[in-house]
Amino acid sequence: MRKNKILILALLVCLSIPVRAQNTDNNIIGIVVDKSGNPVYGASVNVEGGAVETRVETDKDGKFEIAVEKGQRLSVFSVDKGSTTVVVKADGPMTIVMGYAAQTIDVGANRTFNRHESTAAVSTTYNEEFNKRSSRNISNSLYGYGLGLTTLQNAASTGLMADPTFYVRGLQSLSSSTPLVLVDGLERDMSLVSPEEVESVSILKDAAAVALYGYKGVNGAILITTKRGKYKTKEITFTYDHIINTQSRRPEFVDAATYASAVNEARGYEGLGARYTPEEVDAFRNGVGSGGASRMYPYLYPNVNWIDETFKDRGVSNKYTIEFRGGGTKFRYYTMANLLTDKGFIKTPNANDGYSTQNMYSRANLRTNLDIDLTGTTKLKLNLLGTLSESRIPGASVNLWDMIYSIPSAAFPVRTEDGSWGGSTTWAGTSNPVAQSQGAAYSKGHSRSLFADLTLSQDLSGLLKGLGANFRLAYDNYSNILEDHSKTYTYAGYATSWTTNGPFYTAISGGESSEMGSGAGIDNWARQFNFAGSVDYNRSFQKWDVYSQLKWDYEYRDSYGLNTTIYRQNVSWYNHVGFSNRYYLDLALVGSASSLLAPGHKWAFSPTISAAWVLSEEKWLKDVSWVNFLKLRASFGVINVDYLPKDGSTTVYDYWDQIYTTTGTQYKFNSSYDSEFGSTIIGRLATANSTHEKAYKYNVGVDAMLFNGLNVTAEGYYQRRKNIWVSSEGKYTDVLGVDAPFENAGIVDSYGMELGLNYTKRLGDVVFNLGGNFAWNKNEIKEQLEEPRLYKNLVQTGNRLGQVYGMVAEGFFKDKEDIANSLTQNFTTVVPGDIKYKDVNGDGIIDANDKTAIGYSTTAPEIYYSFHLGAEWKGIGVDVMFQGTGNYSALLNTKSMFWPLINNTTLSTHYYENRWTPENQNAKYPRLSSQSNANNYQANTVWLADRSFLKLRNAEVYYRFPKELMKKTKILGSAKLYVRGTDLFCSDHIDVADPECYGVATPLNKSVVVGVTIGF
Known about the structure:
By secondary structure, the chain is mainly beta. Helices cover 8% and strands 46% of the residues. It has a 22-stranded antiparallel barrel. Strands 10-15-16-13-14 form a 5-stranded mixed beta sheet. Strand 29 (566-579) and strand 30 (583-594) form a beta hairpin. The relative contact order is 0.11. Residues 1-24 and 288-294 have low confidence and may be disordered.
């Protein structure tokens, strides 16, 4: 019998008849494609309710063949394209599109839903969309992606790249608006995750989406889902990016002669004598254009361009990534190794033997995600991520850009005549940025982290069909070691004056020389442990789909510092019911506890209910050809949070306890029997009957796919935050006699709308895609126990969070007559060129009581939007994405750039060219001041700027090599060459500084990337 089988198989091979292609009476052939019509490799296809043994996977062309009867339903699941269910309608080949309704939605219930059946407000973006910036981590890949997510770029003070600030639906509370960040369902640091290892990023926005995260989900959540393996597949992908970085909008400061003249001009307005004689100004001027030093007196009257002397124009980064992805019939794997090197802009980093002082950051990531079917009913999932990173900064982690913004070009030479580092009595040589970048050695940081979690899933259908259990253990550890190899140096300079015989100087010196340091120690660490256990029930009864889960999860967190150990736990009951594939109802009941809260108040109850109606499944709409998917949904929930009150920036942990402080108490046992008894002081009154800050969240939304390619999401929401911690000092008078307690009395309302559009269409060989996101987020403080105000303009309740308050400017005083005819301004004695203010409250006096709300928030914009365009023809493609903001303000108070010369700082070219002078009465900025000026240098509309902007976040031109060519190599499966640009263009109202980085900080980068991706 065995010989007969072998002969039959051999005959089939000889006749070149593919065994798999034999289409029996019950077999259906099909293809699974994505929204662009590209084949989906490794998707699992099974008859709904069928055994695991009947499951098949799609091949590299997206094709499959499965035994199924007409009228039965096929379930299709792809780890990167979502899931869907289709009815077999014909015997011919099927085309299954993994479209918008198939997107995976994960709300932490141990079961993922597709968008068709989900009732939550969740937006999802995938790797092929956001991984176009060649960013060093996933955080910096999300500008403009994720409907409802506001991503704001930041700049570092030490020269290394900073991570952005995130908000979900804008600012929400007086306490905090920071969203929860999850990596594979656990709170983790996303800055350690590379974009290459991420499958999707989901923005969880309403109560239905965050209910199961207890106290932590009140401000929304960002869920990072990493890649997983696929059954019966094998893929190897290598990616290399070469990145050339330049700094955009570096500040420009005046040369030495202009600085000297400006100081004299400022002192003249103030009735002071000139600091520099005309001859000294000429001596400075003679050095202009001579390479940074005066031709006549290069060391006495220097002219140094500190930016050019300290920094070079370009930095270089490199990224190397290799990924292994695949699996067998019962085992799936994903492994990634990633190496990043990033070198900064220090101009001369190798001036010392044996070490470099270049700003540097390098990181290695190694991830392994495993899925193992131990038996037909037992499944194991393991996620591991290890990271090692190293950073280097010149000197003792010095802030070079703070020095650049401080030291004038006329301060001192880079080096003196004898080669010593330059300095002076006014400007210490320890602030010499070139010396600090070359002669102070370096500091180095080493960080290492481990993310590990294991999930065991057991099918208990042997006891009750649909019953299952899940157990999850997770342990994360992070530490950072700081090595201080910096050293100090001596400096020298000259104290100069001009006499009738020319310059007269006295040599000065300072500082001390030391050997390189060798100290090292842990300066930061964190660890956390998570456990979760759940029992769930998942069944389909004819038209009913029922899922119910009872879950307990526990979290332990500890980190560097005091009062940082936190224990939290949740007990939740989650229920999902679907009927007839078009009506869905979810109910979540969650009890949460936290060690942070007062005894007797640690637990809180958070209920959430949500529903969805899939109109496109109704008979009266099902046959409308241009409506592919249409769903309405709504949700309501109460989410509690375990925030603590704050005294300024200090968290108050013992708010419920009455504290007494005793001073001076001692009894000395000496010959004189001295004793001293002080006083016992009652501290801030304890809070009685405290409760939890709560969010009452309402949401309505529409999800749709129209015209076979237009994805639409529209959201409207309202939230009331109640019981926010606030100080009650404004509630009581001084008669109370002690510090007033904190109370749960704050109220903030927030509301807004979101609209997301995405259209993909294939026309012959051309595939094009365009779309955009728009979010409008508004908020209002309804109550904060504000103290009674003398005038209405001073009242802050009723305004937005982060509102700017300041004086309203009416121009500048023209002359002494103008000053005499104007209202008295009580900040300081004014002179012509000072800012003239409006009497807002009408009391006839200009003082702090005339401050009022001006502009918008400086913290977050009310409007956040993006739009993208892309097209591909025969492998040649282009893709661009713009992102912008609106209703966003900046207060331009950066030293030297906008508030110059104070405390002997430098002066920007921009300010100098736009300053008030008697000849330039219609100037943009007030007169120069050489010393503190309380009238001019305060928050007012002169310094208020429109911070809205539009940026070209990323642009890409690429070429995908033809599949036919790749097959001929017999090694390569795919190849793509590309050139990318990131942050190359910005249109805004500030011009001289980036609207996202206008303070004293490292300028933001713009980059050009040349890269290649090869698949095997």
